[in-house]
Design goal:
Layout: no helix or strand
Length: about 45
């Protein structure tokens, strides 16, 4: 039987005060390079 190993995420980036960042964000200067997500439209009975 094979062993299944989970994929481990890399280390989180540190914030300037030394605490780990909780999640990735798009900073306001970089926002124009990342367009908003398209709205998701559900089909009837879906």
């Amino acid at each position: 039987m094979e062993n299944i190993h989970a994929i481990k995420p890399g280390p989180k980036p540190k914030t300037p005060d030394g605490t780990p960042d909780e999640r990735r964000r798009v900073t306001p200067p970089n926002q124009p390079r990342y367009p908003d997500l398209k709205p998701h439209i559900h089909k009837p009975k879906d």
